Amino acid sequence: MTITIAMPSAPPGTAAVREIESGAAKISVRDFDFFYGSAQVLHGITLDIPDQQVTALIGPSGCGKTTFIRSINRMNDIIPEARAKGTITIDGRDIYAPGTDVVALRRRVGMVFQKSNPFPKSIFDNVAYGLRIGGLTDKRSLREHVEKSLIRAALWDEVKDRLDDSALALSGGQQQRLCIARALAVDPEILLMDEPASALDPTATTKIEELIWELKANYTIVIVTHNMQQAARVSDRTAFFMLGRVVEYSDTKTIFMNPKEKMTEDYVTGRFG
Amino acid sequence: MRRSADDRLFRLTTGAFAAMVLVIVVGIGIELTRQSMLSIQKFGWSFWTGRTWDPVAGEFGALPFIWGTLYSSLLALLLSAPIALGIAIFISELSPRFLRQPLAYLTDLLAAIPSIVYGLWGIFVLVPIVRKLELLTPEPLRRLPLFHGPPLGVGMGTAALILAVMVVPFSSSVAREILKNVPSAQREAAYALGATRWEAIKVAIGYGKTGIIGAIMLGLGRALGETMAVTMVIGNNPQVSLSLFTPQYTMAAVIANEFTEAADELYLHALIEIGLLLFVITIVVNLASRLLIWSTKKRAAELVVLASPATKEEIAA
């Protein structure tokens, strides 16, 4: 890929800091760098993600948005030779501070992946998995939590009569909603979604988008998407990533209608990408 | 024109070689049956249940050998399965990268050691150790059927131990392969829900369950047919006993030991009939285990095609 566009002259991230307005920041990112071995893939990311809103991360392939979202629950830890610099704080606590309990962090920060990845178990056991490893054994309580999570993920009506069937028998869209239910079951505060609808047909995509819209009442949602219409539809705020930097971060409306940076405009109007 | 003719010739030759495998297997089956006709006709089903093996009187019952083979193999499996799985998990999930290859290679090397060497090692090293352990066994334990009999050193327990060592590389390398095939998305799903490393590994094992069972059964197939090392340490005494201390006998061992001594036709046919049964058992066990392994790999592969989990490059991107 050869992109011959000059990087913006302002230091990356400053636009973001300037533009914090409504709502307290749930997640604050400051000068965050990320490396795979010697290759630096994120450069000085600085932005604030507000509580109970949907923040979309957009940008061309390879711009670092997936790496960034996986940094918020330290999912990149499992990749050998991955290394982070800078800080990400959630509710004021630095999640990269030494001695951070990563397991506890990941229970607070749920994640939904690009491809649905249910376990080869029953629908019930999938949703109950996080609860069980968290130590919940009481059958009634498990049932209640599973039901609640499936209702929240808008899947309950479709599966309530076959909770013991294999999760793999569900359709792609249903599997993805099951994965959302599974993530919601452990009662996270933040929900990270890495292109959650990219493998789905339009109807299933619409369902997921409606769901995201409903979920934001209770969760802070960060979503990576390739699909700009989707970002425009579901998000309150949008960050445009490019070559490992945040080019612009603002209200979704501003990003799409009235972007400050030329590069953002070129991207959202489809001139490259 | 000529080149396509070449292609056809090539396909025919290689195809013929492939077909030969099938022909050989079927041929062995037919020949074994034909060559054991005398014994099959004379004893019928009672051959499999008879406990007397008396070549002089011309009376042949194969039960002690069948028992010896199945019992020693199952014991070996009980010992080897956790070890093999442990090795596979360590290599594929926990070991530092630079140790992975050498460790995998070393385990595979265990499979390359000739079984006669295992046998010699068994006689000179394992048997004295087992004998000492047997002597140390406290009296109350010795009254249990499992530890009954004189502390000879040679016997069922020693055979099971040596079989276990021989089987480990087979089971562990297939189990390793299975774990490698588990999509990383499965582990990530577990991690994202707050799983510890061990819990994520359990998810991977759960995903590859059938294949891992197949891997262990593949070890069983290997243990069933193992001859030399077992013959050297099991004691070669046809009896049906639960005791680990008692010298027993296996199907493969009796064929190896007595084939050259089989003076009359019936004796020979009886031995070959044992071979026939061993042949059938190992084929069934191997087919079943291959089927399990294959079904797991296929499922993993389908998932990758359907949903191709984020590759390293994508994550890095």
Overall description:
The complex is a heterodimer of chains A (273) and B (317). With 273 residues, chain A is an alpha/beta fold. Chain A has helices spanning 14-18, 65-72, 102-108, 123-133, 139-152, 156-159, 172-185, 202-215, 228-234, 252-257, 262-268; strands spanning 25-36, 39-50, 54-58, 82-90, 93-94, 109-112, 190-194, 220-224, 237-242, 245-251. In chain A, the strands form 2 sheets. Chain A has a 6-stranded mixed beta sheet with strand order 6-7-8-3-9-10, with helices on both faces. In chain A, strands 2-1-4-5 form a 4-stranded antiparallel beta sheet. In chain A, helix 4 (123-133) packs across helix 5, helix 5 crosses helix 7 (172-185) and helix 7 packs parallel to helix 8 (202-215). Chain A is globular, with a radius of gyration of 19 Å. Chain A starts with 13 loop residues before the first helix and ends in a 5-residue tail after the last helix. In chain A, 47% of the residues are buried. Mean pLDDT of chain A is 88; it is low at 1-22. Chain B has helices spanning 2-35, 37-43, 46-49, 63-94, 97-112, 115-136, 139-142, 156-181, 184-192, 197-207, 209-225, 228-233, 251-258, 265-307, 312-316; strands spanning 53-54, 59-60. Chain B has 15 helices and 2 strands. In chain B, helix 4 crosses helix 11. Chain B has one domain: MetI-like fold. Chain B has a two-stranded antiparallel ribbon with strand order 1-2. Chain B is mostly helical. The longest helix of chain B has 43 residues, at 265-307. The chains are: A alpha/beta (273), B mainly alpha (317). The A-B interface holds A 36, 39, 41, 61-64, 66-67, 70, 73, 75-76, 78-80, 103-104, 106-107, 110-111, 113-121, 129-130, 133-134, 179, 182-183, 186, 194, 199 and B 97, 183, 185-196, 199, 203, 206-207, 299, 307-310, 312, 314-317.
